[in-house]
Fold Class I SAM-dependent methyltransferase.
Amino acid sequence: MKLYTELAEYYFTIEEAGRKFPEEVEFLRETFKRHKIQTIVDIGCGTGEHVKEIQAMGFKIHGVDGSNRMLEIAKMRYPHCTFEYGRLEDYFAKQPVDAITCLFGTFNYLLDDNAVITFLRNTHRNLKQAGLAIFEIWNADPIYRIKRKPLTTVSNVRQGNVSIRRNRGFRMTRADDVAIVEVNYVYNLNHKDLKDRHTMRVFNFPQIQNFLEDSKFEVLNVYGSYAGDKYLKTGARILVVAKKRS
């Protein structure tokens, strides 16, 4: 996936255009403070922006990603932070932590039930007793209704001397109890096109709740946004805060 390799140096600029980054960081800070969290692993940390901000707030956080290029940039930009290579399905922390985050749809790259179960069991193992898991997951319900969307421009951003236009479209390729979506992008960098394709699985909340309960987690809260909005079936996002059960 070129967003995480060839385009990695522009990744945060591209993604930030569609996000409310300060709101995300504040949500995490408040959640960590409320649950007396001190140690955190961010799985799918990308180029490290969440890690940098959370560490600056006084928490001990460690970033993990499955893209060597993303990690290279994270280490270069934030040498005072710690990062390491690790894949979703088989990451094992050196020692248990208070909280694990997996944000911005990274969870949606778990394409089958076995991958989801393995990831959640490893997350359970990597957490201390009563530790927190915070997952941001793309919601299947709106996708079932729409089925497909043609390529349209979703953002225009600039980083240094490079202007970047992002076009995105998608189509559902499987629509039973496992919903698979092919997401197509065309990035225009200074008038040169670069095509990219991501295959992702989208979930509805009952599916996520069942996976979590089967993996010995208790769902504490589910939101529709980092502002704390109520989760709605029609919303794009499922933001789950869950606690490890013994």
